[in-house]
Each structure stands twice: as structure tokens, then as C-alpha cells.
Specification:
The protein is an all-alpha fold. The chain has helices at residues 2-12, 30-45, 49-52, 54-62, 75-86, 93-102, 105-130, 145-153, 164-196, 200-215, 220-246, 251-263, 265-269, 273-288, 296-299, 307-334, 338-341, 346-358, 360-393, 397-416, 420-463; strands at 16-19, 25-28, 133-134, 141-142. A hairpin with a 5-residue loop joins strand 1 and strand 2 (25-28). The protein is globular. The relative contact order is 0.21.
């Protein structure tokens, strides 16, 4: 536990503290420093890809889905899987927590970090495509950071089957996803108990049973997510649009509040400016997961005509997660009178806001949408786990199914009680994944940049 806590503090604790006017300070953790600096670097190296190539991202999303390999998934299907895990309970409760701790200004910094993260997401997804390999168990392709890290450290012709750094990444991922499974179970059972007074045991049994039916079948994951993810995202977006339209007169004041608190003198004077920046930054970084190495596990599985196309799709995924879905949650909160939400936090705060906007239907809706967000996250992370389990234990169904059963057990345990240690274990896992992923990402980035240059050359030729 001492070692665990020490590593956790190094990753998530304030590595550097910068004093600010008004008596506040800006604490920077190792992970925030790494991800922000790499995001800035890759945004410059890609020549501001999130802005310059946004129309091309839309065009690639709208392309006809074609796959050349049996059981392979398309680029858009890989985007749907990564969106399933990005768009999770963090988009609901996490955004609420960021605004509660950092005020409305945290939303602005969440947007900034998302734009930087898009470039990181492009590079890691493109690398996953460049180093993907055929999957003898599930069909189609597999890959991700463990595989491109392997190729960075293990040269061709070497008899070594695994790289230490790649294996550590794979282990960190499996630890992280077990921790997340427990958190998912707890969040869903708590939301249903609050909304419908259903005992956690009943909710958990149904959740685990449905999840088991899907994840223990060979290729049910993609089919289910193809249906669930677009439906849940569109419904949440439409409900938010309705709430915004209903409160349209307040919008100028809300945006004024976001921008004024992002840079406002009041926050500096009150000593809270550091909290504004850091809560927005952390929410943006760990909602879109850019740099953590999760989404490339799905990106590698895509059967797509050019690696850079999948990179653009995953960059667009960051936009969907943070600029669209997280902003929806922020608007629901900021359009609610502050006197109603003072002193509340987490799901209670969000459900109170939804009750204000939509009455009893709002409370029911948010419980159901949380169930869908969390359920799709669980299905998605087990898709991610496939390639990591295969890297560590080889191509066999025993190890694949044992990990799925372990995740289902964690899902069940989480539904009955919250264990802080396991929650921290999930945070530790994603932190370690990020460190190991970034060790390879920057040295290999020139390959992704060459792929981008080649793809842009093809586009120019097609337009002539």
C-alpha cells in the first residue's frame, strides 16, 4: 500500500506548484504536464490539425463503410467503440464535479484541452493502424500501444517475444479496466436506487447478466455498441438542445460566466484561479482519454483504406466526447439556478438539475442514460482488453474468457458496495498506461506525421 500510494501521488499529486496573484496557486501533476505539453507539441507538428482538417474528419465519418477482411470492423465502428468508453459516467458526474470545484470557467479549459487532445488522439490512432496485425481469435485486426511500443523496443529478428514497457502497458490497462468495472457497477446501482428506489442487488444482477450475455459471445460487442452508442448520444444531445431552447434567454449570461470565470479577476482575487484551470484541464484530459492509450486498442482493429483516416476519426471522437457531450452536461448544470444546487455534489447535483428542467422525467432520464453510458463503457473496455490479454498471454480463449469473468466479478462487487482502493486502482492504471504510452508516442510520432502528409497529398490529387 505504501508503494501504491507513493506511485499514485507521483502521477496525480502536485509535482509543481506555481503561485498566482490573490494568494491562489496552480498545482500541476506529472500526468497533466506530460499530456498538455505533448498536446501542444503534436498540435504544432500536425499544423493545427483539429482546426485545419475538421471538414475532412466529417467527410471520413460520412464515407461508406467497406471492409476487406472477414470479421473486421470499419473505421466508423472503431470510432463507435472508442466513443462508448470515452462517453461514460465521467461526462455526467465528472463534469458536474469540475464545475462544482472550479466554477463555470472550468468548462472553457475543458474545451482548450480537448482541442489539444485531438492531435494526440490522431497520432496514437494512426500508429495503432501502422502496427496492427491480424487477430487469429476474433478475426479482423488487433493492436494498440502494446504493439507499437513492442516494435519501438524489439527489433526485427529478435527472439524476445515481449518488450518490458509494452507488457507493463498491457498490465496497467487490465488493472485500470478492472477498476473501472467496479466503479461502473457502483454508479449504476446508486443511480437506480436514487431514481426508482430499486435495491442495488437487483440492479446489479440484471446489469451483470446482460453484460455477460454480450461479452462472453465472440463478436456481439460491436453489434451491440453499433446500436446503443448512437442512440444514447443522440438522445442526450436532443434533451440538452430542448433544455437550451427552453432557457435560451439565459445563454448569453451563461457564456459570459464561462469566459469571465475562465480568466476572471474575481477568481484570481478569491484565490481560486488555479482550481478553475486544473479542474477544467483534468476533466478534459481524462474524459477524452487522449494520450492514455485506450482508444488505439479500438483504432487498430479498423479495416480502413489509410492509417491517417482512422487517426482523423479518433480525433473527431475527442470532439464528440468533450466539445459535445461534456458541454451538454455543463449546460444542464449552468442553466440551473445556483440556489437549488448549493451544497450538492455528484449524482444528487445532476439529478436535481434535471428535475428542475424536466421534473420527474428528468430524474428518470438521467438514471437511464447513466445506465447506457456506463454499460457501453463496460462493453467497450472489454473490447480494448482483447489485444492486451493476447499480447501478455498469447492467442488462447482461456485467458480471454478468464479476464472477462474477472471484469464481470468486479462489476458485481462494485454494484453492491464502493471500495475506494479499487477506484484509486483504476486511476493508477490509467496513469501508468499514459506514462508507458507516451514513452513510445513521441519517438514514433514522425511516422504518423508522414502518414498524414501522404494522406493529404492523396486528397489534393483527388481534388484536381
Amino acid at each position: 500500500m505504501t508503494i501504491f500510494r507513493a506511485v499514485y501521488d507521483i502521477l496525480w499529486g502536485d509535482l509543481i506548484t506555481i503561485p498566482l496573484p490573490g494568494g491562489s496557486s496552480l498545482g500541476l501533476s506529472l500526468l497533466v504536464i506530460i499530456l498538455v505539453l505533448s498536446g501542444i507539441y503534436l498540435t504544432i507538428r500536425t499544423r493545427f490539425l483539429p482546426f485545419r482538417l475538421f471538414p475532412e474528419m466529417i467527410r471520413v465519418v460520412a464515407e461508406k463503410r467497406n471492409v476487406s477482411q472477414k470479421d473486421a470492423i470499419s473505421g466508423v465502428q472503431a470510432l463507435i467503440i472508442s466513443t462508448a468508453t470515452r462517453v461514460g459516467m465521467g461526462n455526467l458526474v465528472g463534469v458536474v464535479a469540475a464545475i462544482s470545484a472550479g466554477g463555470a470557467g472550468a468548462v472553457f479549459w475543458m474545451w482548450v484541452i480537448a482541442l489539444l487532445g485531438s492531435s494526440t488522439a490522431f497520432v496514437e490512432a494512426t500508429l495503432a493502424q501502422l502496427y496492427k496485425e491480424k487477430d487469429p481469435l476474433y478475426g479482423g485486426y488487433r493492436g494498440g500501444p502494446a504493439y507499437y511500443i513492442h516494435h519501438l523496443f524489439i527489433k526485427k529478428g529478435s527472439k524476445r517475444k515481449r518488450s518490458v514497457i509494452a507488457a507493463l502497458f498491457a498490465i496497467s490497462g487490465l488493472i485500470c479496466w478492472c477498476g473501472i468495472s467496479q466503479v461502473i457497477g457502483n454508479s449504476v446501482s446508486s443511480a437506480f436506487e436514487n431514481a426508482f428506489q430499486i435495491p442495488p442487488l437487483y440492479t446489479t444482477i440484471i446489469l451483470v447478466a446482460v453484460a455477460a450475455i454480450i461479452v462472453l459471445r465472440k463478436n456481439a460487442t460491436v453489434k451491440v455498441l453499433d446500436v446503443v452508442v448512437p442512440i444514447m448520444a443522440v438522445f442526450y444531445f436532443l434533451i440538452t438542445l430542448f433544455i437550451i431552447a427552453k432557457n435560451a434567454g439565459q445563454l448569453p449570461a451563461v457564456f459570459q460566466r464561462i469566459f469571465s470565470e475562465a480568466f476572471g479577476l474575481r477568481q484570481v482575487a478569491a484565490g481560486g484561479f488555479g482550481a478553475v484551470i486544473m479542474n477544467g484541464a483534468k476533466r478534459g484530459l481524462f474524459s477524452n482519454e487522449a494520450g492514455s492509450g485506450s482508444a488505439p486498442c479500438a483504432a487498430a482493429a479498423a479495416d480502413i483504406s489509410h492509417p491517417a483516416k482512422e487517426g482523423l476519426l479518433q480525433a473527431f471522437g475527442v470532439f464528440i466526447d468533450t466539445i459535445v457531450i461534456c458541454s451538454c452536461s455543463a449546460m444542464i448544470m449552468l442553466l440551473t439556478p445556483m440556489e437549488l444546487t448549493d451544497g450538492l455534489e455528484g449524482m444528487n447535483l445532476l439529478q436535481t438539475a434535471m428535475s428542475y428542467h424536466l421534473g420527474k422525467f428528468g430524474v428518470t432520464f438521467i438514471a437511464v442514460i447513466l445506465w447506457l453510458f456506463s454499460f457501453s463503457t463496460f462493453i467497450g473496455i472489454l473490447f480494448y482488453a482483447r489485444s492486451n490479454v493476447a499480447y501478455l498471454f498469447g492467442d488462447n480463449w482461456i485467458s480471454q474468457n478468464l479476464y472477462k469473468i474477472l471484469a464481470l466479478v468486479m462489476l458485481f462487487i462494485g454494484g453492491l458496495a464502493a471500495y475506494t482502493f479499487v477506484w484509486d486502482l483504476g486511476d493508477l492504471g490509467i496513469g501508468m498506461m499514459t506514462i508507458f504510452n507516451m514513452i513510445a508516442l513521441i519517438p514514433l510520432a514522425p511516422q504518423a506525421l508522414r502518414s498524414l502528409k501522404e494522406y493529404e497529398g492523396q486528397i489534393r490529387k483527388e481534388k484536381k
